[in-house]
């Protein structure tokens, strides 16, 4: 049996990334895939990109990874962009949209946000039609002979697993900016990698505590923009745009 860790949405939070990577190492996991958004929000986008390049076997592009490579005028985006440098920005530009692979007879597809775009957001409470559309073959994903049996994604910072109509949709949550629980999140999928023969396959969501106050101190030390909103999200696990 092969074990794959699927991480996403690190957002420059290195204490959270360290905690996740330590947990992955202890579980004897064979490969690590990253579903994007290494950069932005937190203080150390450059370190996050370097760590992911070094430690992950596969990386797809997130919305922040895409946006940060474009011309920016917004102060916050410029601050994060300037920390990355030319070579990292070029790396982010080259990242693929999605990846397909077989796992114990199931075709698994991974992307950042949706089957259409890194910017189209799908929540677990969206309509059945919208959630089932995540399994569609599109111009962005390519048009293989078969639609996926399992789809995993990131983007919404809200981990879940849903099964319906013989298909499995799962969100891996966020490493560095979780907005459901105040713990870093990733998914682990286990089965026979690259096998089209039906066999045992499982998915689980893993939650890992990390030093939130250290992450906050690092952001304060860097005099990061939008600091108060970032601190609120880390300490509460709630999106800054939500009202009580």
UniProtKB/TrEMBL annotation:
<dbReference type="InterPro" id="IPR029052">
    <property type="entry name" value="Metallo-depent_PP-like"/>
</dbReference>
<protein>
    <submittedName>
        <fullName>Metallophosphoesterase</fullName>
    </submittedName>
</protein>
<dbReference type="InterPro" id="IPR050126">
    <property type="entry name" value="Ap4A_hydrolase"/>
</dbReference>
<dbReference type="InterPro" id="IPR024654">
    <property type="entry name" value="Calcineurin-like_PHP_lpxH"/>
</dbReference>
<dbReference type="GO" id="GO:0016791">
    <property type="term" value="F:phosphatase activity"/>
</dbReference>
<comment type="similarity">
    <text>Belongs to the metallophosphoesterase superfamily. YfcE family.</text>
</comment>
<dbReference type="InterPro" id="IPR011152">
    <property type="entry name" value="Pesterase_MJ0912"/>
</dbReference>
<dbReference type="Pfam" id="PF12850">
    <property type="entry name" value="Metallophos_2"/>
</dbReference>
<dbReference type="GO" id="GO:0005737">
    <property type="term" value="C:cytoplasm"/>
</dbReference>
<feature type="domain" description="Calcineurin-like phosphoesterase">
    <location>
        <begin position="3"/>
        <end position="190"/>
    </location>
</feature>
